[in-house]
């Protein structure tokens, strides 16, 4: 049965990667993973917003990709060492910081794809996601962390398990089993999607055989991060169910979807 997260939306799905931040050469005041970036994606018509979470020194789960502040602010501190209020001040001029709870409340019609970046988020995320489990997909490169976040959500009283995409171990097993013509049924149990780059470390992950195998077991294939229109169209025609992109506005104009 199709999870509600994947039901009733246009296809292929366009997932706004960290919202819709300023493109190069545009107003640089809208940064990734901010309230303004999510609002821009929502205004462009994106039904799905992809984001990431880290835990602050106060224990708040904020939508933030990196482990440290180095890339965005030139500050080597880990997010886990910074108070939430300080992060809010840092992001005030760039679109505004949001916690997971704030984002789910602020965008009640959006479907969120949340990458759990740290073990510290796996337990407390459950209570925040539980009331919204029908419109949340939880992912993590670490399948152990992903499963812990799902279990926490169910313990918090969710009426339905959030959707989920397989992490590294699931993707690796699917690639090998599909190449060997072996059944991945056990590996893909309770998996709704796999989210992969076309290639990783020189190895092609998005292959016709992997796509056919995933589809045969009711699992969608989403590809990241796709920003060129020619690639969006090519991947759509090759069977991609979802395009994860920094340019959701461009993707929505480019892809012909019924």
Automatic annotation (TrEMBL):
InterPro entries in UniProt: GP_PDE_dom (IPR030395), PLC-like_Pdiesterase_TIM-brl (IPR017946)
GO BP of this protein: lipid metabolic process
Pfam families: GDPD
Record's keyword terms, sorted: Hydrolase
Domain of life of the source: Bacteria
GP-PDE domain segment(s): 12-255
Main enzyme class: hydrolase
GO MF annotation list: glycerophosphodiester phosphodiesterase activity
EC numbers, comma separated: 3.1.4.46
PANTHER family: GLYCEROPHOSPHODIESTER PHOSPHODIESTERASE, CYTOPLASMIC, GLYCEROPHOSPHORYL DIESTER PHOSPHODIESTERASE
Protein name: Glycerophosphoryl diester phosphodiesterase
Source organism per UniProt: Microbacterium esteraromaticum
């Amino acid at each position: 049965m199709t999870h509600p997260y994947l039901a009733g939306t246009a296809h292929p799905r366009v997932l706004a990667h960290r919202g819709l931040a300023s493109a190069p050469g545009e107003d640089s005041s809208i940064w990734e993973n901010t309230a303004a970036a999510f609002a821009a994606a929502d205004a462009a018509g994106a039904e799905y917003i992809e984001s990431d979470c880290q835990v602050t020194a106060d224990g708040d789960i904020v939508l933030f990709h990196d482990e440290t502040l180095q890339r965005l602010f030139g500050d080597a501190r880990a997010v886990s060492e910074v108070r939430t209020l300080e992060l809010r001040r840092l992001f005030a001029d760039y679109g505004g910081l949001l916690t997971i709870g704030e984002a789910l409340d602020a965008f009640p019609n959006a479907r969120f794809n949340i990458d759990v970046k740290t073990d510290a988020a796996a337990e407390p995320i459950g209570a925040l996601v539980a009331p919204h489990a029908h419109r949340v997909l939880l992912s993590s490169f670490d399948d152990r962390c992903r499963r812990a976040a799902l279990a926490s959500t169910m313990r918090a009283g969710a009426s339905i398990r959030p959707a989920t995409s397989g992490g590294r171990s699931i993707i690796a097993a699917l690639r090998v089993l599909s190449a060997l013509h072996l059944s991945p049924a056990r590996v893909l149990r309770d998996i709704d999607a796999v989210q992969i780059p076309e290639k990783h470390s020189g190895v092609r992950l998005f292959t016709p055989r992997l796509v056919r195998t995933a589809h045969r077991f009711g699992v969608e294939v989403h590809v990241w991060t796709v920003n060129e229109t020619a690639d969006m169209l090519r991947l759509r025609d090759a069977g991609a169910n979802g395009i994860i992109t920094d340019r959701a506005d461009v993707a929505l104009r480019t892809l012909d979807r019924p």
